[in-house]
Amino acid sequence: MQIAIDGPSSAGKSTVAKKVAQKLGFIYCDTGAMYRAATVLAKENGIDYGDEEQILAKLSQSEISFKPSEKGQLVFLNDEDVTLAIRTPEITNNVSQVSALPKIREELVRQQRKIAGDHDIVMDGRDIGTTVLPNAEVKVFLIASASERARRRYDENIQKGIMTPLAKLQEEIEIRDYKDSHREISPLTKATDASEIDSTNLSIQQVVDKIVELANNAR
């Protein structure tokens, strides 16, 4: 079974997807982390975030992988743990540019589909239900207000020691929303057969329960 969870930045997709996968015993694939890792790859190699060919050349020689730990899922770029690096403000503010590059998307979508072809999977991102897994049995479009998403990111950043004003975070989220929904390749959009869930006033567990129910009904 394939479960696709899409939605804007900081809507809670990754947190919810991890818990849904755990509840159902499925594999979890964090596609957003893969694009962030590609952005880190560009930064570490001094490549312009819009240089598609150079990023692709490095990406084709690199492996993005996920490993479980007591602190949650870790993200590796080759042998380097980039779990924290992919969440820094610079990467957050430039991942939209990298993820809009057609050849980068093509390569990572290929990797994502390969993972999904081998397992029962929960996958989250911006275009999973529309592009990556268009035949997924369960599709969810998870939304929340920009102010609530900014508050969530602020709380996450504080825990990581990242100090960014709340108003600045909301501005960044609104800019990211615009970029993601207006890009030419696979823009952020709700699949016609997706169930929309507004998480603004819901707990994480309430959202998880709704998606698990959708999955059980689709069996």
Automatic annotation (TrEMBL):
Signal peptide: none annotated. ATP binds at G7, P8, S9, S10, A11, G12, K13, S14, T15. GO terms for cellular component: cytosol. Keywords: ATP-binding, Cytoplasm, Kinase, Nucleotide-binding, Transferase. The keyword Cytoplasm applies. Residues 3-216 form the Cytidylate kinase domain. CDD domains: CMPK. Its EC number is 2.7.4.25. It is an enzyme of class 2 (transferase). One of its GO terms (biological process) is nucleobase-containing small molecule interconversion. One of its GO terms (molecular function) is ATP binding. It is found in: Cytoplasm. Belongs to the cytidylate kinase family. Type 1 subfamily. HAMAP family: Cytidyl_kinase_type1 (MF_00238). This is Cytidylate kinase. The lineage of its organism: Bacteria, Bacillati, Bacillota, Bacilli, Lactobacillales.
